[in-house]
Amino acid sequence: xxxxxLVIGATGLLGEPVARKLQADGYVVRILSRSLEKAKAKxxxxxxxxxxxxxxxxxxxxALRNCDGVHINLDGGQDPDLERRGVINTVEAAKKIGxxxxxxxxxASVCEENRWFAGTxxxxxxxxxxxxxxxxYTIFKSTFFMESLPRFVQGKRASVIGKQxxxxxxxxxxxxxxxxxxAYKSSEVVGxxxxxxxxxxxxxxxxxxxxCAKLNPNAVVSNLPxxxxxxxxxxxxxxELKQALPFFSYTGKVKVLENGxxxxxxxxxxxxxxxxxxxxxxxxxxxxxxxKA
Length: 293
Hints:
The chain is an alpha/beta fold. The protein contains 11 helices and 10 strands. The strands form 2 sheets. A 7-stranded parallel β-sheet has the order 3-2-1-4-5-6-9, sandwiched between helices. The protein is globular and about 50 Å long. The termini are far apart.
């Protein structure tokens, strides 16, 4: 039985909802963070905090001690191979310590065909390391998250970077977090890759239009060609834009961005149900509440 879970990447956009949902569902949650201060500021005293990172095997082993499970929610940023190295280090430490379960957030486009892209190759190798580890595992292969939409809006401009023709099953981090928590209560998802896909499909342009209509009505949605985005990144020295450009060049070139279906998720964990309209309404309420506080 899984009682205590280490969450790696809990201070990030997608890891935090998982940590909070696991705790709400009765698990003891330990956070691995490079910064004790940052983790304490975000989570307070309700969570155990272990200081270290996935490059430090000794710190990993210490953080995993007495844990029954580990959830990995890594973002390599400008070093996509960090995800591969971090997962392999975590797998080896988990085996050594005797951890029972491992869960991991990968991507819906991750497959052999798309390994030409460094970020996808890192996730592919991370999946392979987990699947061959001998540990009980579940891999979550997610599409685009609704929580990423604010990143495409700067003032009165909302930009679709490059050609993004695909209709995607946008999903909320809340639904994803619930699926992770349910997975730790189910033996049926052990050894499976679960595609995390929402119930509705929108292109990047249409998703941004819905988001802006609800939360930033003065913003105009337009396309920003990759070459122009590169020039802007160079002139503005925007670290975030420079980091995002390779990914959006990739998403504009691949044949399929959602390389699977959500039937397994529907039957075993329940399909994500929060629509984009509902997510925008909730976020609008949260922003209004924070402004009044």
